[in-house]
From TrEMBL:
Gene expressing this chain: gabD2_2
Source species, domain of life: Bacteria
Organism: Mycolicibacterium aubagnense
Protein name (Swiss-Prot/TrEMBL): Aldehyde dehydrogenase
Active site: 240
Keywords attached to this entry: Oxidoreductase
SUPFAM superfamilies (alphabetical): ALDH-like (SSF53720)
Length: 505
C-alpha cells in the first residue's frame, strides 16, 4: 500500500500517486517560522486589493477563471496523479470553480455595497444609518484532500472577492494542485494576495495563529481542535466538517432513478465526498427492486485511476483501513456484501464498490463516516422509522429523499436535521451556490456559498451613523438641564411603546 506524502517541516517532501505508488511530484514544506512573515506580506498587499473595489477585483477573478479553463488538461492530469482519482471525478472540479467565480463576479458589487438601514423610530430619522462590509485582512483556509481544486477555491473565491488576502493551507496529502493554482493566480496578473503554507498540523496551527478568520474544511475531530486554537486569539471560524448523509427512498419513488442516484452519490470520488450517500433507508415495498437495481448498476462500474474508469483509488492505505474495518465489522455482525466486500491485493489504495444489506445502527458502517465506496441499505417499515433513523446521527450535513410525490418528499425533508436536502436527486445542492451549504450538529458551524452571504462572511460589519440634518443632535448631552433629559427619555419610551402596546392587545 502507498502513502501519499512524507510530510516533514521544514524540508522538501515527495508526493506519491495513490493508484500506482509512483512519484507524483515534490513539494517544499513551509518552515514554521516563515508563516508569520507570509501572513505579514499578505496583510500589506491586502490594503491595495481592498482599495481596488469590487469592480477592480472582479476583473482579476475573471482572468483567473479564464486561466483555469485554459489549463484544464494540466490541472486534471495533476489531480489524477496526486489523488488517484478517475478522470470523470477529476473533471468536475474546474467547472465548479468557474461556476463559483462567474456568479461572484456578477454579483459582488451589489453583495458588498453598504446597506442602508431604516431608523428604528421616527425621531431617529434625522440619522442616516449604513452598514459597511470591510474585509478581514487575512483569511486562513485550511483544506482537506478530497477535491484539491474545489476545497481551496470554494472558499478562497468569496474571500478574495470580499477584498481579503488568503493564506491557503492545503492538505499535506495534496499540496501539488495548490502550487499549480497559485501559479495560475500569478499568471492571471493577480497581486500577491494569495499565498500557500504547505505542511500538516503544525503549519495549520501557525496559520490559525496569524490569520483574522479561519475557514476550515475537514474532519469533525480536527474541526474541534481548530476552534480551540482559534479561541486563543478570538479568531472567528467557519467549519465545514464530516457527515453521514442518509438517503430515504419512499415506496412511490422511481426505483430505477433512486438506485442510480444512490450508486452515483455513494461511489462518486470513490466515496470520498463529504456529502456522499453513506446510508440508505428504503420503505419495504420498494426494497427488493431498489436493491436489485443498485447491484446491477454497481456491477457495471469500472475501478481504476484516470481515463476509462468510474471510480479511482482511496487517498491512502489509512483511508482503505477505515472502509475495510466498517465492512468487516458489519459482515461479522450479520450483514451481507452483495458486491465487493474484500480489500484487494495488488498495488494502489483501492477498495471495490461494496453494497451491504442486513445492516442496522449497531454497525459502524451505518453510524460512522466511512468516506469510502460503500453503500449500506436498510429496509424500514414506515416513513417515521426512516426519519428517526436518518436523524439518529451526530452528523447533519445533507440528505436525499426520493418519492413520486414531491410535496410528500418535501414534508419528509423538513423533518430531517441537516443543512440541505435534495429531492429526487443527489449532491445537486453543491451546484446551487446561491444557497448556503453548511452542516448542523457535528457537521459544522457556519456555511459557505449562499449568494451575498458567501462574501459577507469574510467581512466585519462597520456601522456608520451620519446626520441627515444638524437638528436634534446633542439633545441628550449633559449640557442640557436634568429636566430636559428626563423629558427626552419619557418621549422616547412613550413613542417606542406604542407598537408593543398595540401588539400586546
Ligand atoms: P482532516 O481533518 O484530517 O484534515 C483537514 C486539514 O486539517 C488538513 O489540511 C490537515 O493538515 C489539517 N490539520 C490536521 N490536524 C490539524 C490540527 N490539529 N489543527 C489544525 N489543522 C489540522 O481531514 P481530511 O482527512 O483531510 O478530510 C476528510 C474530512 O473532511 C472528512 O471528514 C470529510 O467529510 C471532510 N470534508 C468536509 C467537507 C464539507 O464541506 N463539509 C468537504 C470536504 C471534506
Amino acid at each position: 500500500m502507498t502513502a501519499t506524502s512524507d510530510v516533514q517541516s521544514p524540508g522538501s517532501g515527495t508526493i506519491y500517486d495513490p493508484a500506482t505508488g509512483a512519484i507524483a511530484g515534490t513539494v517544499r514544506w513551509t518552515d514554521l517560522d516563515d508563516v508569520p512573515r507570509i501572513a505579514a506580506g499578505l496583510r500589506a498587499a491586502q490594503r491595495e486589493w481592498e482599495a481596488r473595489g469590487p469592480q477592480g477585483r472582479a476583473k482579476v477573478l475573471a482572468r483567473f477563471a479564464v486561466w483555469l479553463n485554459d489549463h484544464r488538461d494540466e490541472v486534471e492530469a495533476l489531480l489524477v496523479r496526486e489523488t488517484g482519482k478517475s478522470m470523470v471525478d477529476a473533471k468536475v472540479e474546474i467547472p465548479l470553480a468557474i461556476l463559483i467565480i462567474s456568479y461572484v463576479v456578477k454579483t459582488m458589487e451589489k453583495a458588498l455595497a453598504p446597506d442602508t438601514r431604516p431608523a428604528p423610530m421616527p425621531m431617529l430619522s434625522i440619522k442616516k444609518i449604513t452598514v459597511h462590509y470591510r474585509p478581514r485582512p487575512v483569511v486562513g483556509i485550511i483544506a482537506p484532500w478530497n477535491y484539491p481544486v474545489a476545497n481551496a477555491l470554494m472558499d478562497a473565491i468569496g474571500a478574495l472577492a470580499a477584498g481579503c488576502a488568503v493564506l491557503l493551507k492545503p492538505s499535506e496529502r495534496t499540496p501539488l494542485t495548490a502550487e499549480l493554482l497559485l501559479r495560475g493566480w500569478t499568471d492571471s496578473g493577480a497581486p500577491e494576495v494569495l499565498a500557500l503554507a504547505q505542511g500538516a498540523r503544525e503549519v495549520s496551527e501557525a496559520v490559525i495563529d496569524n490569520a483574522d478568520f479561519i475557514q476550515f474544511t475537514g474532519s469533525t475531530a480536527t474541526g474541534r481542535k481548530v476552534m480551540e486554537r482559534a479561541a486563543r486569539r478570538l479568531t472567528p471560524v467557519s467549519l465545514e466538517l464530516g457527515g453521514k448523509d442518509p438517503m430515504i427512498v419512499l415506496e412511490d419513488a422511481d426505483v430505477e432513478l433512486a438506485a442510480n442516484a444512490a450508486v452515483w452519490g455513494a461511489m462518486f470520488n470513490a466515496g470520498q465526498t463529504c456529502v456522499s450517500v453513506e446510508r440508505v433507508y428504503v420503505l419495504e415495498p420498494a426494497y427488493d427492486a431498489f436493491v436489485e437495481a443498485v447491484v446491477k448498476a454497481v456491477q457495471n462500474l469500472k475501478v481504476g485511476a484516470g481515463e476509462g474508469h468510474h471510480l479511482g483509488a482511496q487517498i491512502d492505505a489509512s483511508q482503505v483501513d477505515i472502509t475495510e474495518r466498517h465492512v468487516n465489522e458489519a459482515l461479522a455482525a450479520g450483514a451481507r456484501a452483495l458486491t465487493g466486500g474484500k480489500r484487494p491485493d495488488g498495488p494502489g489504495s483501492f477498495y471495490p464498490p461494496t453494497v451491504l444489506v442486513d445492516v442496522d445502527h449497531s454497525m459502524a458502517c451505518m453510524t460512522e463516516e466511512t468516506f469510502g465506496p460503500t453503500l449500506p441499505i436498510m429496509k424500514v417499515a414506515t416513513v417515521g422509522d426512516a426519519v428517526r433513523l436518518a436523524n439518529d446521527s451526530p452528523y447533519g450535513l445533507s440528505a436525499t429523499v426520493f418519492s413520486g410525490d414531491v410535496k410528500r418528499a418535501k414534508d419528509v425533508a423538513l423533518q430531517l436535521d441537516c443543512g440541505a436536502v435534495n429531492i429526487n436527486d443527489v449532491l445537486a445542492n453543491l451546484m446551487c451556490t446561491t444557497a448556503p451549504m453548511g452542516g448542523w450538529k457535528a457537521s459544522g458551524i457556519g456555511a459557505r456559498f449562499g449568494g451575498a452571504d458567501g462574501m459577507r462572511k469574510f467581512c466585519r460589519q462597520e456601522t456608520v451613523v451620519e446626520p441627515r440634518t444638524s437638528a436634534g443632535a446633542g439633545g441628550n448631552y449633559y449640557h442640557n438641564s436634568m429636566k430636559a433629559l428626563a423629558r427626552m427619555n419619557t418621549v422616547l419610551t412613550k413613542v417606542s411603546l406604542i407598537r408593543s402596546k398595540r401588539t400586546a392587545k
